Amino acid sequence: MKIAVSGKGGVGKTTISAYFAKRFAKEGYQVYAVDADPDLSLGTVLGIENSDIANLKPIVDMRDVIAAKSGGGGSFYSLNPDVDDVLDEYAINLGNIKFFKMGAVKQGGSSCYCRENSFLNSLMNSLLLKKNDVVVLDMGAGIEHLTRGTSKGVDAIVVVTEPTVVSVQTAKVVSNLARELEIKSVKFVGNKIRRPEEKEFLLKQLPAADILGCVSYNDHMLDAALGIETTEGSAGFEEEMDQIFQNLVKDVQV
Amino acid sequence: MKIAVSGKGGVGKTTISAYFAKRFAKEGYQVYAVDADPDLSLGTVLGIENSDIANLKPIVDMRDVIAAKSGGGGSFYSLNPDVDDVLDEYAINLGNIKFFKMGAVKQGGSSCYCRENSFLNSLMNSLLLKKNDVVVLDMGAGIEHLTRGTSKGVDAIVVVTEPTVVSVQTAKVVSNLARELEIKSVKFVGNKIRRPEEKEFLLKQLPAADILGCVSYNDHMLDAALGIETTEGSAGFEEEMDQIFQNLVKDVQV
After folding, report:
1. Are the CB atoms for B120 and B36 separated by under 8 Å?
2. A229 and chain B: CB distance < 8 Å anywhere?
3. With an 8 Å Cβ cutoff, is B109 touching chain A?
4. Can you give the pTM of this predicted structure?
5. Considering A51, A233, B142, B235, which has the largest number of Cβ atoms within 10 A of its Cβ?
6. Full strand arrangement of the beta sheet holding B97-101
7. A-B interface: how many C-beta pairs under 8 angstroms?
8. A178 close contact with B: CB closer than 8 A
9. What's a single GO BP term from this record (chains A, B) (predicted)?
């Protein structure tokens, strides 16, 4: 199954993506976790050292290798990770998780990330997954990965939203664009809920049946954000995310 | 003066941009406020109706008009808002603020926003400003507007950051890219500060002399985010932002 995590900047896409990657891995799935945001952060949240992320070859560099293997005709062969080790060169292994980055940080004024997005889309579409393989794509903030069509071909898109007017507005635009890309399953996660009226606000704004669940704001996240290791207060987060995970698996039928 | 507001997704770029636009307008400047994020929100925060934003012609549509006026040679004439009314067709007027949007929301899979970014850059560079004119650009989340060079040519970039590891990481990448673009003034604003250790964290991570100031997290913002009108708790925000504004004006010498 291929899942893209999307939403406005700062809503918690990376936190949710990291949870999904770790959780699927814990459940015995082979996980391909991809940081599809040029502004890299999924690796950091998964616990990888910044220097290792910086040294990792980006997915886009695979293009020439795959073109050569495909006979150079520009078309893609189906990439079967079971028999093909080309992916391994571009991955950092964390148990059952293989971590990838879409692109590297470039020089100011040098170029856009269109080539990276386009190649990632082709790669995703040529990847042969087994029943127990899951791809988790942590998308860039906002809507451009959708207008670019990067996430075309995923089975599900999880749109994360805070309980704010502008964040919900983006969530709605993302969900419309996802439907235009014919993504079958478009689901929502409410994040950083501080007050009961915030949950009510989300329930009024979004179709209740498509909300996988809500995550409360908590100090555990604040400490984690400051780089302080703590387990205090994480029980609530784990419980809420467990429910969201169960609903995701049920809804999109992994 | 041309100011771009940048930073990781969700750090509060739009809130800070809207404050700057309104504040400069209040001080008697003519403000050109540009939403340079395809995931539009500056207009909403400035209080413009969604339908009016949706109906507004995006800046990128100016391209053909300007090309025709320039004699069609592909090069730009210097756009002088004093004698030239081409801008007015693309603006929503709010007192001393003229609001623009870089691009419109597109269809899923239709295209990137490279053309929009490239044209915005040309337009900014061809705009003749008077002493009392200020451009405030609310950039898209992350780093792509810098690798694309959209913000090349601004006088100052204000990098907004939350007190989190990943947000500060982005702020540093943004500031390096801004220097590669030879932007003279690169300043930071700490936002959503909840605890004293968070402010300390920022002071440890970023050069103190380049921090314009810090903004506390407050319930006023939460209510505003839910679309609830309130002035309660806004005094602290106004005070902190006033200090930041004073420092900005002093530092970049409007």
Report:
1. yes
2. no
3. yes
4. 0.91
5. B142
6. B92-94, B97-101, B30-36, B133-139, B2-6, B156-161, B185-193, B211-216
7. 183
8. yes
9. negative regulation of cell division
